[in-house]
Amino acid sequence: MADNKIFAGPRVRRIRNGLGLTQTAMAEALEISPSYLNLIERNQRPLTVQLLLKLAAVYKVDLDELQGEAGGTASQLREVFADPLLAGEVPGDHELIEVAEAAPNAANGIVKLYRAYREQAARLSDLADLLAREGHEPSLAGARLPIDEVREKFERRPNFYPRIEDAAEAFHASLGLSPGEDLAPALKAWLRNKHGIVVRTLPIHTMPNLRRRYDRHSMRLFLSERLSPFDQLREVAIEVSLLALGEAMLAELEALSLSTSEARRLGRFELARYAAHALIMPYGAFLAAAQRARYDIDILRSRFNVSFEQAANRLTMLQRPGAAGVSFFVLEVDNAGHRLRKAGAQGFPQAKFGGGCPKLNIHAAFAQPGQVLVDAVEMPDGTGFLTVARTLDGPQAGFNERVRRTALLVGCDIAQRDEVVYGQIAGAHGSVAVGTACRLCERQGCLARAEPPVTRPLGLDEMVTGLSAFDFQ
After folding, report:
1. Residue 70 pLDDT greater than 50, yes or no
2. Which residues form the HTH cro/C1-type domain (predicted)?
3. 84 with 181, same domain?
4. Predicted TM-score (pTM) above 0.90
């Protein structure tokens, strides 16, 4: 019977209190001592099968109510305490289950408060975007995580760092590579000859949870075999950038004026990633190739032996004064709709484009993995954009693992469509009517509307039903 013992003290206490019984009265009916019942209610003694049957027989209690855990509430509490603001407050699920069982009403109150907080935060963000569109830059007080500060800095400024570009071009030229020569061996040789660092690829079972690891003691850079050859090249280029382009990266990092050491650390990693792209695809050569190919990403990825994602991101960096390319921006999301990355040649166009409309082809891309989807889209104010979307596959998954797949949208102003190869087919059947986000969009009769706009009251006419569950006046 030991395997059948369960701890359900708070539930027994709720049953007793609901019946208005004292511990002595219930203990007598169950044929146990009051002290033993007290221990049961404090979860210091288990409920045996015999006691469960006795409770069911005497008080007509549903056994499922006693044996089942407060799983639903505990799961909701788990979501609450997964928020970055509360991360680390609760070390494990045991306390959450205790709260859900001992104080279910209080637990439900916590969940309701958290959802109200998230709703208000979303509304505040929407209103801030609305004010930004109208030319007002709100000054919002409140706690922000370092990653929020870093994302805001990188998303709102041009994705161009001149010191890094100049240093990367000079370093690439110093390698003395012939046209078309593979870059990876040259970078690995530089690491080995200049710093004694050897690059090794490790199998998944040796390094199951890491992309890369630099061992300072053995002077070896370990890369996971999960990574594609393109991603392995970028990891090597990141290590080279940290060593060879450190001064340029530090100067750009200082210019960002990040407020905390953690934000600076995250900013330094983002700049290292930028520097790796600049090193793999030198500015002058990449711009010339992009203009000749009319910014065909597949041609560029083949010419520079990089991935679609790397070539697309590099397009957003072509903003050198006097030698600028088309002003592209990128948006990356996962299939749950989380926005993972935003960047733009002139800063991501949050106010005009937004990127939160479900009708954008970045969401349709998940239904056609690997295919390039092209659209001309029109915003409510008449502004137009050319958008190119495609799925990206993450690190190699094992047989029993689910593939990580995201989608990337590359966009530019519709006025530049004639310079871009994708412009010749975009809009052949008209433009797609989109908005910045449902909460900021006032398009009537939208079949894809997921939320009501914050700028209009809901329509509550019982005699008329529109196409959306969020009709508004």
Report:
1. no
2. 12-66
3. no
4. no
